[in-house]
Design a protein that fits this description.
The protein is an all-alpha fold. The protein folds into 2 domains: 2-74, Homeodomain-like (Arc Repressor Mutant, subunit A), CATH 1.10.10.60; 88-205. Helices cover 75% and strands 0% of the residues. It contains 14 helices and no strands. α1 (2-12) crosses α2 (15-24), α3 crosses α6 and α3 crosses α9. The longest helix has 22 residues, at 27-48. The chain is elongated. The termini are far apart. 26% of the residues are buried. Residues 1-33 are annotated as: Disordered.
């Protein structure tokens, strides 16, 4: 770790010696350090939650100079936000033909159930959702990754309300997982779960049709 830190410090300083170090260290090495920091932060946030992790812990896990964490990301909160954005696959799940959206959301939900112990994303959210410092980041994530992409897929009135209703199904798994666990759902037939969830997402996303 010491050798790696000394090289990184040399690369980040000015002067002839620093310039030579920058020339010797290609951009991909700096990107590799950045990637190590992101990976370390993802693992630690998942293990301990936002409040239980320090920048020093992240730097130590990444074998990087602590100053580089702040240089590359600005703050622990900003690093949390970048990890969150990089981990989410929901934007890709939502994209595609609108007609198949309920089924894609249902299949995504079932895939998360099948992952024992949860995903890095679910563990991060479970252990960090109550932290005031990341509230704005989580709200932005919900808007940017789930609500707005859903709204863009919907026609008809009240698109945002329908997107928010579907979002409650997507995000509601977190509290259930924390309080009750998902063993019963894991034991259920995945095809049946997918069919039931498809019906739920279809109802949530469909325009309201007044009864006769």
């Amino acid at each position: 770790m010491r050798v790696r830190d000394e090289a990184e410090r040399a690369a980040s300083t000015g002067g002839a010696e620093g310039g030579d170090a920058v020339a010797r260290r290609p951009k991909r090495d700096r990107e590799a350090t950045r990637r190590r920091i992101l990976d370390a932060a993802r693992d630690l946030f998942g293990e301990h939650g936002y409040d239980g992790v320090t920048v020093r812990m992240i730097a130590a896990r990444a074998e990087a100079n602590m100053a580089l964490v702040n240089r590359y990301f600005g703050s622990k909160a900003a690093l949390f936000g970048e990890v969150l954005a990089g981990e989410s696959v929901l934007r890709e799940v939502i994209a595609g033909e609108p007609a198949g959206l309920p089924r894609r959301l249902a299949e995504h939900f079932v895939r998360q159930i099948d992952k024992r112990g949860g995903t890095p994303m679910s563990r991060m959210l479970d252990r960090s959702a109550g932290q005031p410092e990341v509230k704005e980041i989580l709200l932005h994530h919900l808007e940017d990754v789930i609500v707005e992409p859903l709204v863009a897929q919907l026609d008809g009135p009240d698109a945002r309300a329908r997107a928010l209703l579907a979002s409650t199904i997507i995000m509601g798994g977190g509290p259930v997982r924390r309080l009750l666990g998902l063993n019963d759902l894991s034991a259920a037939d995945p095809a049946e779960l997918t069919d039931r969830l498809t019906a739920m997402f279809t109802a949530a996303l469909a325009p309201h049709t007044p009864a006769d």
